[in-house]
């Protein structure tokens, strides 16, 4: 005797034969495009014929297996499953398990079968999460296990193709609605009540289905189409249902007529969206106009006219407005179409190149203003110019890369931001110029709401300036230039390592603040994002703290400065930070201290010059030694002055100008002292000595070709005196 598990395994092994039988039945159904009622009864005998004859076993086991085969409902489901590609799909044991669970568990309300593009054949106890092109559904109508005997009464099944809403509308209009409206067996009250709600549901479903495609379609109830108006008028309930449909038509037409206000008040739309709106509106209104002359609509109008319905007059008035609106939409579309090509060209241009195209666009809008019979109102022209501002902002946003800004590409990002600011300013300037020209040379007044037109442009310009400040902060506090960090400055002295650590700490704090700003909620370039102001102000507060820390760092770095050269080196290191107003005050103060060191150096040199008898080395002559000593003092202050002169980054301050003036006076005094020393020396000599100074010390040898001879004056050599020459000093 085999176990019960073995018996189940034998039954499941025959599932493949049943699956092939169900597939063959499915192919026949697809060819006939019908679902035969006896398909499940035919599928099982064929599968039993294909099965091999079982090995003779004991009679009890054969009876149990036969009972299990008789209660197998799988062919009943498979024979009713109609899906494209189902014949080539692979059926697995997992599918058997899900199908058996649905059949035996009364708490499961629905089973769906569909073919996923990636996963293949899928069975699910519920609707699929993702939209599928085709779905076969089985709905349990009673909480009982499903058997072959109760399958027809318990299971409701069908196939949904395409989108769910269009499929539902097709099913209701093609299958259920005709049967319900032709049914005369129901009680009159129940039939009227159900038909009224069904009409209302079909009207809403039709409206929703075509709104997905941007169209407006009127639902025409088919209940009274084959009846004469005189006969329909006698049925008050049917007349009320037709009035309900006309009320729904009136509501639809009102929505279409009021849709214009939505696009006119749209804050993010551009001129191309305006053109597209009028194109769709023209198509929609013309489509409604064609529907209003359909026989079904005219038939209902005639019925309600005989019934003297109060809803007919408002509907006819709106129908006339539809005709007028269609002509108006066609006119507006004709004039607005001249803007399409110029605005399409802007989509491929950089912000810095857009300004050259703005005058032509303004001229085209002026043409619409002057010549359009319906689009020349103040509100519509203001809205069109505001949409032009939105288009310029959108193009500028596409040219700005926030990732590059926050990744340290500060130089190129600032160029892009400056280009966007220049584009917005050029747009405003061209507009104001056009206003002036239009006012002077046209009889049409140009009175538009300028604040409304440029409100978002001004906000966007300020947002660009904020981002430029972010770029400057990265350059100042993090040494970012264009995607790369500059070298870390090297500080000398005992405090050099500590100053370097403090500088790195400032950079680390700045990067944390920058990361918080980058992760702000909402779009940074979205001018309607009011949270940006809070986040940016928080970032600015952090930057102010870093400015105070930098001021303290500069002050501590200058504590050990004892000479001008060292001070100039430090000021060169902190020069990039001097662009910030707060740090600039400390920077200028340290520049004043630097010039004070220079003044101290000048004072020391002046004190040395004021000595009556300077110290000279014993081997130096009196006059030449004194001149050499004075020249050394001048080289001392010249070296410092050259260092200051080459420091182009030093600010121009009054103290510096005074120091330079003192230096120039001291240089003149030194030069005068050297000349006076020379004159004092020459006064002790005769004229021949002065003349001998022009004699060269070397000459070409007259005796040996190509050789040089010493050309010392023999007389002066014997006397032991040496000439004094200013050039030798």
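^ structure tokens above, recovered residues below v
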């Amino acid at each position: 005797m085999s176990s019960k598990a073995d018996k189940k395994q034998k039954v499941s092994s025959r599932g493949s034969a049943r699956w092939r039988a169900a597939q063959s039945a499915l192919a026949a159904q697809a060819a006939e495009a019908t679902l035969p009622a006896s398909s499940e009864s035919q599928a099982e005998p064929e599968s039993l014929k294909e099965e091999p004859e079982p090995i003779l076993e004991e009679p009890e086991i054969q009876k149990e297996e036969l009972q299990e085969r008789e209660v197998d409902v799988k062919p009943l489901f498979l024979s009713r499953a109609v899906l494209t590609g189902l014949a080539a799909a692979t059926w697995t044991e997992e599918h058997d398990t899900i199908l058996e669970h649905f059949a035996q568990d009364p708490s499961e309300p629905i089973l769906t079968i569909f073919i996923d593009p990636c996963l293949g054949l899928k069975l699910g106890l519920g609707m699929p999460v993702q939209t599928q092109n085709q779905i076969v559904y089985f709905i349990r109508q009673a909480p009982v296990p499903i058997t072959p005997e109760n399958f027809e009464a318990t299971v409701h099944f069908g196939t949904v193709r395409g989108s769910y809403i269009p499929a539902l509308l097709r099913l209701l209009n093609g299958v259920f609605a005709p049967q319900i409206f032709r049914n005369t067996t129901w009680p009159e009250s129940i039939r009227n009540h159900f038909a009224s709600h069904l009409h209302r549901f079909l009207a809403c479903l039709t409206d929703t289905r075509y709104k997905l495609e941007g169209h407006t379609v009127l639902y025409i109830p088919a209940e009274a189409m084959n009846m004469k108006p005189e006969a329909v008028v006698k049925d008050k309930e049917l007349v009320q249902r037709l009035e309900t449909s006309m009320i729904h038509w009136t509501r639809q037409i009102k929505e279409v007529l009021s849709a214009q206000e939505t696009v006119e008040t749209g804050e993010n739309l551009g001129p191309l969206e305006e053109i597209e709106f009028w194109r769709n509106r023209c198509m929609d209104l013309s489509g409604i106009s064609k529907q209003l002359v359909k026989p079904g609509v005219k038939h209902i109008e005639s019925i309600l006219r005989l019934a003297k319905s109060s809803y007919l007059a408002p509907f006819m008035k709106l129908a006339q407005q539809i005709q007028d609106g269609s002509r108006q939409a066609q006119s507006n579309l004709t004039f607005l179409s001249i803007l399409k090509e110029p605005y399409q060209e802007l989509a491929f241009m950089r912000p810095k190149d857009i300004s050259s195209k703005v005058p032509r666009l303004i001229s085209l809008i002026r043409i619409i203003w002057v010549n359009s019979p319906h689009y020349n109102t103040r509100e519509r022209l203001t809205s069109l110019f505001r949409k032009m501002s939105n288009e310029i902002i959108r193009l500028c946003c596409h040219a700005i890369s926030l990732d590059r800004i926050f990744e340290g590409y500060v130089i190129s990002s600032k160029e892009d931001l400056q280009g966007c600011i220049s584009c917005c300013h050029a747009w405003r300037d061209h507009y104001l110029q056009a206003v002036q020209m239009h006012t002077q040379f046209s009889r049409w007044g140009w009175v538009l709401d300028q604040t409304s037109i440029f409100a978002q442009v001004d906000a966007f310009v300020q947002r660009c300036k904020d981002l430029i400040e972010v770029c400057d902060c990265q350059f100042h506090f993090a040494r970012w230039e264009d995607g790369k960090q500059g070298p870390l400055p090297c500080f000398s002295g005992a405090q050099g390592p500590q100053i370097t650590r403090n500088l790195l700490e400032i950079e680390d704090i700045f990067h944390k603040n920058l990361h918080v700003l980058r992760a702000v909620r909402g779009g940074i370039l979205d001018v309607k994002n009011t949270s940006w102001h809070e986040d940016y102000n928080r970032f600015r507060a952090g930057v102010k703290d870093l400015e105070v820390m930098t001021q303290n760092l500069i002050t501590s770095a200058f504590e050990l400065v004892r000479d001008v050269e060292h001070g100039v080196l430090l000021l060169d290191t902190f020069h990039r930070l001097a662009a910030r107003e707060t740090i600039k005050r400390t920077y200028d103060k340290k520049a004043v201290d630097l010039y004070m060191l220079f003044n101290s150096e000048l004072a020391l040199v002046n004190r040395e010059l004021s000595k009556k008898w300077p110290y000279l080395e014993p081997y130096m002559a009196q006059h030449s030694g004194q001149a050499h000593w004075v020249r050394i003092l001048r080289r001392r202050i010249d070296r410092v002055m050259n260092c200051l002169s080459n420091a182009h980054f030093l600010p121009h301050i009054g103290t510096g100008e005074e120091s330079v003036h003192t230096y120039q006076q001291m240089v003149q005094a030194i030069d005068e002292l050297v000349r006076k020393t020379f004159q004092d020396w020459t006064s002790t000599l005769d004229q021949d000595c002065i003349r001998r100074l022009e004699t060269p010390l070397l000459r070409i040898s007259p005796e040996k070709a190509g050789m040089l001879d010493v050309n010392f004056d023999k007389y002066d050599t014997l006397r032991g005196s040496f000439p004094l020459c200013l050039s030798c000093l």
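The chain is about 65% helix and 5% strand.
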